[in-house]
Write a structure and sequence with these properties.
With 279 residues, this protein is of the alpha/beta class. It contains eleven helices and nine strands. The strands form two sheets. The chain has a seven-stranded mixed β-sheet, sandwiched between helices. A two-stranded antiparallel ribbon has the order 3-4. Strand 3 and strand 4 form a beta hairpin. The N terminus is likely disordered. The structure holds zinc ion.
Amino acid sequence: MTPCAASPRVSSQTATDSPPIPSLLNGGYLYQGTSSFPKFAMPKSISQLNEDGIHAISTLFLAPHPDDLVYSAFSALVQHTGVGTAVVFFNISRFTKWGILPKYFVTPMRTLEERIILTRLRVRTMFLWLEDSSVRNYPIECQRVTSQLKGLQGAFRYIFCPLSISGHSDHLAVRSAAIDYWISCGRKPRICFYEDLPYAAKMKEPEVEVETRVRELTRCCGHLSVQYNPLNVNQFRRKLALSRLYLTQNDHRTLLEKHAKGLGKKCRSAYAERYVCCS
Ligand SMILES: [Zn+2]
C-alpha cells in the first residue's frame, strides 16, 4: 500500500452553490404509473444522456443504493462537482430504519432523498430501477446488471465504484458491472474503488479487508494503489449533515466520524476517505 498518496484537497467552494430544488423536481417526478409498479419518471435515460452530450461529462459515479456515494465517496463527489454523473442501480427498496416496509412507500422516498442530495452536490443522477436485496427473492443476475451500462457513451476520465468490502451482493454486482464497463472503454478512464461505508467502519480490521480486495482486483485491473482523500473539519461536517438527509435510513454519523478520523491520521488531515485506484 502506498502510505499516503493523497490527491488534491477537496474544494468546498463550488459545492455550496446548489441549483434550486424545484428545478430538479420539474424534470422528473411526474407520476407515470405502470401496471406493475408506480414508477416515477426517470429524468434522464442513458440514451437521453447520450443525446444531451454526456461526452462533456468527465466522471461516472456508480452506486448500488441511494446513500452509498455520500457515505463513501463524498470527497470525490465534491471534487468532481458539476462534471459528474451518478448512476444508482438498486433504488427499488423496502429497507428503512423503521424496518422492512412496502416498496411502494420506500422506493420513492429513497429515490427522492438521493436526487435532492446529489443535486445539491451538482451531480447529475439517474436511477436504473432494479430491485435491491430487501425486495428480491431471486438470485442476482450479474449479466443483467452489467448490461444496464451498455450504450452509455462518453469520454469519462474517472469511474468511481464500490470496493465491495462488505461482500454485499448488490455492491459486488455493481463492482463487476463497473469493471466490465471500464474494460469496454479500453481501460482508459481511471477506475477508483471507494470503501463501502458504513460497512468498512464496522469491521475489526478494515485494512486487512482492503488488502484482500486489492489482491483480488489486481488480477483483472492491474496495479492498484490506496489513496487517502483528506477532508477538513468543515468539509466533513458538511458530509455528516448531508448524510442525515437520508431520513429513511439509520444515523451513521458516529461510525462515519470515527472511521474518517482514523483515516485522517494516515494523511495528516482531520478526516479522510479511502479509495483504491488504478494507477
Ligand atoms: Zn449500499
